[in-house]
Write a structure and sequence with these properties.
Layout: H1 3-21, H2 29-46, H3 57-75, H4 81-91, H5 98-108, H6 113-135, H7 141-148
Length: 149
């Protein structure tokens, strides 16, 4: 067997294997930065939930809009289903994360400090999990191939 054919016979399956192993999107600095910034804004907003929600309508709308923008960005990245599912859980008003917290605040008008403090821990952890997933994504195929050279 000629050396070129042997090299091609090894390299092509290796490239196919590397490509097929990539099941999540590659790391995206923008997505990571937006997620961490959104966490800070959401937790800051939640700190006000011991006060009447009517004074925070604009701030709620602004944070919700930012979160929806991040969700849309994530939703349109290829191989990003896990991150998208995590965002859906964070935003769902029927769940016990950010969306559910805001819905409860809007329903009850004010929330107890104890409830807010515990919710902030839980929801902050949810944002951390999204950011952690992003920061641990495997490198793009080009980066993986360069590491073999």
């Amino acid at each position: 067997m000629k050396p070129v054919k042997r090299f091609t016979g090894i390299l092509l399956p290796l490239l196919f294997l590397l490509n097929s192993c990539v099941s999540t999107a590659s790391f995206d600095q923008y997505a990571y930065a937006q997620t961490t910034a959104a966490k800070v804004e959401a937790i800051d907003l939640m700190s006000n939930a011991t006060q009447n929600v009517s004074g925070f309508t604009n701030q709620i709308r602004d944070v919700d809009l930012k979160l929806k923008k991040i969700y849309e960005y994530e939703k349109n990245r290829p191989k990003n289903e896990i991150t998208v599912k995590m965002w859906e859980l964070l935003l769902d008003p029927e769940k016990r994360l950010y969306g559910g917290f805001i819905k409860r605040w809007q329903t009850d008008s004010t929330l107890s400090k104890t409830f807010v403090d515990e919710a902030k821990k839980l929801i902050g952890s949810g944002f951390d999990k999204v950011a952690e997933l992003e920061s641990k994504k495997i490198p793009r195929n080009e980066d993986a191939i360069k590491s073999f050279q």
